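Please predict the structure of the following assembly.
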Amino acid sequence: MVAPKPISLKALNYQRPETHRGYTDHFLDIDLSVPTIAIGTIDTKIKQTFIGGKGFDLWLLWQAVSGQTRWNDPQNAICIASGPMGGTPSFPGSGKSIVTAISPLTGSVIDSNVGGYFGPYLKFSGFDALRITGKSAGDTVIFIDGVAGKIEILSMTGLPSDAYALSDMLSQHFAADKKTGVSVVSSGPGAANTRIGCLNFSWYDNGRGRVRYKQAGRGGIGTVFADKGLKAVVARWEQVSLKTNRPADLEAVRAVAKRYAREIVELDPKQNEMARIGTTHLVPIMNDFDLLPTNNFQYGSHPAAALIGREAFEKLFDPGFDGCWKGCTVACAHGVRDFVPFTGAYKGCKVFVDGPEYETIAGCGSNLGIFDPFTILEMNFYCDTYGLDTISVGTAIAFAMECFERGLINRDHTGGMDLSFGNRLNALELVHQMAAGTGFGTIVGQGVRRMKAIFAERFGADPAMLKDIGMESKGLEFSEYMTKESLAQQGGYGLALKGPQHDEAWLIFLDMVHNFMPTFEQKAEALHWFPMVRTWFGLCGLCKLPWNDIVPEDNKATPEPAKVMKHVGWYADYYTAVTGNNATPEDLITMSETVYNYQRIFSLKMGYGTREHDTLPYRAVGPVTVEEYESRQERYDRQLTETHQVDIAGKDTPWKVAALRSRREARYETLKDAVYKRRGWTDRGIPTVATVKRLGIDFPDVLAVLAENGVT
Amino acid sequence: MPVVKFWDGAEMITVDDRPMPWHAGMCVADLLAGLPDGHLYAVVKMDGRLIGRPRFAGTQVPDGARIDLIPMIAGG
Ligand code: SF4
């Protein structure tokens, strides 16, 4: 198919700012409403304070919005940035972008990290960050051509809505004769008709001769993208080498990259085999530890889990090199070739499915009571095609299914559909309905928080039960880990800035399995250090996976094996070599603290970011129902008697559920206190003036937000 | 005629590429208990299959098994 003829709405020829020590010191600012294209500068103070990536995004977003801005106001901005090390080939995991916006799910700041080639190509085209505000009439494409030094806002009426067809066409259209030189950011029809739209970031897989995808899934940024009338943002760049970032010390970058890449090639086959089976190894492991969410997070394991884990997907994945950035030796971005969907517009056609990753398997599989890898593949494919976040889709459908099974909703509400757990055809039907904006799918596509309100107000469902089993916090759907037996991970989800997503902290093994942090203070320390180190990757254009998914052989002999300090040291060396700014491992933590606190205060500016927003549904903390309790009765009885010294003799299960609940909820509140204290926050969860001064973010507008909230 | 018994490779396993003796009835928990750092491992890979600690005691190690100790500490 040939792309429709573009009509130029605005164009700017520019002198490309050269990359120097990982930065271009410029950002691209596009307002779709007028439309305008402007180039802004990033001064040294901003660079030192915010580092890059999410830091730059938040700084740009803060300037664009007021505390009253809503997700669908033209002032809302989609910001995309790589980071100083972003775009380095051969250092594993150096191609990430971070995207931020005001979320249609949470009403506050959301961030989402993603692979693909866009972030590096944007930077090499001259821009450390991109900010898009305003709204267009629709069918708008932004083309950033770093090779020709031209930026255009184009109207392209008649483009396909489906993401794969769209990216394929635009890659062909804008690539000249080099498709690997183009990366497309797009969404899809599901993004326009729900609040859980994702963004697809493409790269061209030369070996397979096709466009591939990674998703910025969380928080509905795809929905914001669609609301702005955007069809796609395209970046074009050509040559990438170790020199393209013009690092301060090229030889040092080369040395640390070689060391790291070599270690991964040697150890990954002995450890998790991510280059062969991606993150699917997590399925049997989570299942063994009772951590694989099953039937809307009621249970953590299922006898059929083996059908949807590593052993299934090692047979289904198409063998080949699958790095989502050039030279990433972890190469975990696998896919399935020649899959034939049995529903929807692609029924009976051969398609390529990018994925699934663990989250999609658990969210669209076990959590829906579905243990069929082909249904999971089909949901994965259509979510990507429609521009829907597989985590929110899975968690939202799981909630609807449990409500159906408990009689909180019925066929009158679902349009006649049986939504019992395991009903794979109706799970798929809901995905199609979400994309089309029809039927019960329009309600599910609003996300769990709004479904709870609709089920209570319109369908008469019990609000207390909905609150306990609706797996969202801050308005964001949970990602796919069970947290009932790990207080630290309850904090990892409940205290995460954007909502319950595991990219901030994943402490289940350290806490529940190894019991490395028995006290509240130790948990609070972990809930300081781990979110900071993970935040740092998102400042620099890096992927977190190489840090601790492949572990040096001598790591176990180190004082704190979980921190994988040898790798953290290599990251400090890498940062120093690229930017020329000397950094120690401790400095990385401070860099993150600055941005982390700024984001917390940003949430405060938007009307959130205080203690009452760090709450969890009780399902994340303990057994809600008698069935859940009785399914693990020995465990819970023992906890009541041994941990809490409660006499349970002669007590029935509802009594024990309530007794356990009061204790577990109290523990979570105590944890909050400990974490706030460790982070330098007030007991309401607000950074103190001393904290923002120490971190150098005591800007007048930051202090004003604190003052409005009684912190002076 | 003397009986000639051919060694068939039995009664040995490999753990992280190193040979280790095997005995009938050995389970994964027994194997790890015999290692100085066995308590650190929550997951092992045995002949390509992943096994988590809750199943260590109930999973038999077959003669000739190849075992890799997975240092899974902070994934997700
Ligand atoms: S580790 Fe996987 S997700 Fe991360 S950059 Fe490499 S291929 Fe992409």
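Confidence is low (pLDDT under 50) at residues 1-7 of chain B. The first strand of chain B starts at residue 12 and ends at 15.
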